[in-house]
Amino acid sequence: MKIAAFGHYPIHRPLHGGQRRVAAIARQARAAGNIFRYVPIYSTRGYPDGSPDERRSAVPDALLPRLHDPQRREDLHFSDTLKDHPLIEGLIRELREFAPDAVQFEHPWLYPLFAEALNRDPVLRRARLIYSAHNVEAALIDPHWRAEAEALEAALVARADLAVAVCDADARHFAGLPGAAEVVVAPNGCWAPDPETVPSAPLDGPYALVAGSAHPPNARGYWASIGEIPGFLPPRSRLAMAGGMTHLITTDDRFRRHAQMNAEFVVPLGVVEEEALSGLLHHARAICLPITEGGGTNLKTAEALMSCKPVIAMRPAMRGFEEAERLSGVHVADDPEQFRCLLRDAMTGAIGSQRRPDEVAQYGWPAQLAPLISRYESLAA
């Protein structure tokens, strides 16, 4: 099966959750014998490290000021910025030459750029349309833009032959939209650690790991769950902070107000490469998931579960992973005080984990994406 996929970020060096999910879909689709061609249409301001091939479809520099206009939303207004641009005309020509069996959109934002061609072109209209949803976008967007996002998402679901959801709650939402066709659930996951490799320790001494992208809800969850100073941690232990959320936290006045104390308890690492993240997960004494809001499912939850380390999570972090709450070492808090107490207990060794790799293999990408990969086969039939 030939699949053409479009998204708004490059994936050759996946760092945040969306990039990792798309990269995993591409890898699993190709492993199953499909030809999977992913084309990112993206801003080089947000993603300056696209590969040479990916940069062919990057938004032209002349359009970046309009794309990043503070009065607009970059994702929602992608199509408005690039409408009738030669870049899109060229991509449609390439798409026609590729003659895909299916066209897949990661997120809904780019669909309007290709909608007319998919409906009218004699080659492209034969392709099945797949909406690969990472969450219910309209539910997370600023209320000022919500109606516009809802209309876009609903139009794509109504046109799609298949919608892909990351959890049952999202699947129910999409299935309830007018004109919705089939919805398949393919949750988020991660790659299993290599049992033969012991990564080097990135930090000295005991630490808990918190990691997340620069998605604002990650920062809000941190402040709500951990607070302005993680002074509840036992002596000589620290909180290692990785990912884009690091910048959101450390530049906040709440962090700066207690700079000296936070320097004692927090190790801000910023965005780290995959190898460094593997080391952080392997050597952490506990993995904490201070997630208090949002939609879909969280890749960090899958990583935490597959680490087999004690997991301290706020309940929203377990969305889509509810059955994992019965596993050894998975501790779920309903309020910040309970979260902090559990994290302290994990760092002192009062609570631990006996999870085995075979118990969490179901949270790896091959198992999580299997429903989608199987569906590709039946779409091609």
TrEMBL record:
It comes from the Bacteria. SUPFAM superfamilies: UDP-Glycosyltransferase/glycogen phosphorylase. InterPro entries: Glyco_trans_4-like_N. Gene3D superfamilies: Glycogen Phosphorylase B. Transmembrane segments: none annotated. Residues 17-189 form the Glycosyltransferase subfamily 4-like N-terminal domain. This is Glycosyltransferase subfamily 4-like N-terminal domain-containing protein. It comes from Thioclava sediminum.
